[in-house]
């Protein structure tokens, strides 16, 4: 049995979880407290998730895990990749995570089930974003760059089942990004993007965060 150690909010962890769902491979999902530094350091020498445990051996790095699991049997992620999509993800990272991280700190994720776990997250992430309270008070205008990015994405979505028409690593990266988007309330998704994120959620068995959106 595979064991996958994650945080529920973490987009890299979403990537690792996706391949198990897409391949219908059973695994144990173990959510660590965000302030637990000792456990991941014992496994891979640093505080980082996801971590895959297999037969007493540990593997970090989300896409290494994806490649390893996809190699079990006939690979699934064999479709083409699109450099324009990779560029879209790169462009979206800054504005997305500025808005995502303060909302994640407010959400009822299990890795924040202790006061210490939530405080650790806020303390470490505010070093790069500034005060979460300031970001959350910016209002609807702060979300306009994200809305524009979603409009830019829509023409790139070739199919609800696979962004480029056949499943590829682009789907791993894109759904993880859209999963983070789903925590941000007040966004409207173009029809092609909405169909894609809902279909991919079902295919990989990972719920979107719409019901927690802030």
TrEMBL record:
<protein>
    <submittedName>
        <fullName>Glutaredoxin</fullName>
    </submittedName>
</protein>
<dbReference type="InterPro" id="IPR011901">
    <property type="entry name" value="Grx2"/>
</dbReference>
<feature type="domain" description="GST N-terminal">
    <location>
        <begin position="1"/>
        <end position="77"/>
    </location>
</feature>
<dbReference type="Pfam" id="PF13417">
    <property type="entry name" value="GST_N_3"/>
</dbReference>
<dbReference type="GO" id="GO:0005829">
    <property type="term" value="C:cytosol"/>
</dbReference>
<dbReference type="Pfam" id="PF04399">
    <property type="entry name" value="Glutaredoxin2_C"/>
</dbReference>
<dbReference type="InterPro" id="IPR007494">
    <property type="entry name" value="Glutaredoxin2_C"/>
</dbReference>
<dbReference type="InterPro" id="IPR036249">
    <property type="entry name" value="Thioredoxin-like_sf"/>
</dbReference>
<dbReference type="InterPro" id="IPR004045">
    <property type="entry name" value="Glutathione_S-Trfase_N"/>
</dbReference>
<dbReference type="InterPro" id="IPR011767">
    <property type="entry name" value="GLR_AS"/>
</dbReference>
<dbReference type="InterPro" id="IPR036282">
    <property type="entry name" value="Glutathione-S-Trfase_C_sf"/>
</dbReference>
């Amino acid at each position: 049995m595979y064991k996958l150690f994650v945080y529920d909010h973490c987009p890299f962890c979403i990537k690792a979880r996706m391949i198990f769902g897409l391949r219908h491979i059973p695994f144990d999902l173990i959510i660590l407290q965000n302030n637990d530094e000792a456990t991941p350091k014992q496994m891979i020498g640093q505080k980082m998730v996801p971590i895959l445990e297999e037969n007493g051996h540990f593997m970090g790095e989300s896409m290494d895990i994806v490649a390893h699991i996809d190699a079990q049997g006939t690979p699934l992620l064999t479709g083409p990749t699109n450099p324009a999509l990779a560029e879209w993800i790169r462009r979206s990272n800054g504005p997305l995570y500025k808005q995502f991280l303060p909302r994640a700190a407010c959400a009822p994720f299990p890795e924040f089930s202790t006061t210490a776990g939530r405080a650790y997250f806020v303390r470490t992430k505010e070093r790069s974003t500034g005060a979460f309270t300031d970001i959350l008070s910016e209002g609807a205008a702060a979300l306009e760059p994200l809305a524009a990015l979603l409009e830019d994405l829509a023409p790139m979505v070739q199919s609800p089942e696979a962004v480029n028409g056949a499943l590829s690593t682009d789907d791993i990266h894109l759904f993880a990004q859209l999963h983070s988007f789903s925590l941000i309330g007040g966004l409207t998704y173009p029809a092609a993007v909405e169909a894609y994120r809902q279909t991919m959620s079902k295919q990989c068995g990972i719920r979107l965060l719409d019901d927690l959106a802030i």
